[in-house]
């Protein structure tokens, strides 16, 4: 069975996600930082009236934080955790892969990547690590970031 994947680059490494999870691809725009966030959360953006958390995939994959530029891209995805954005260096391609082309992730790599990888695939002489969006971001993290804020009391009250 053929499946399509959106491939993208982070620190020179190719990754991919199931194209059916991708809602939108946007150029990077400055996000609103939130205090006390962890797990690679850079902040949130307002996307047509909806608050969308933005995750820096470099941090989620145990690398240094991305110093974003106008060349960076945000991939808006929908997974079990909800709708959120992934900050990546660049979007590469949409590839169609057969299940027989997918290789299991070696156990040592799976441990290092915290179980975020589902499979490895080779196409056009490139190795692509396929990400499991449901394991990448926890539902409670997205829910907490999407929750309406408690209004601040007016100082005069």
UniProtKB/TrEMBL annotation:
Q: Identify the residues that the record assigns to the CheW-like domain, covering every copy.
A: 2-142
Q: Name one Pfam family in it.
A: CheW
For biological process, the GO terms are: chemotaxis; signal transduction
Q: Which CDD domains match?
A: CheW
Give the GO cellular component terms, alphabetically.
Answer: cytosol
SMART domains according to UniProt:
CheW (SM00260)
Give the superkingdom in one word: Bacteria
Tell me the PANTHER family matching this sequence: CHEMOTAXIS PROTEIN CHEW, CHEMOTAXIS SENSOR HISTIDINE KINASE-RELATED
Q: What is this protein called?
A: Chemotaxis protein CheW
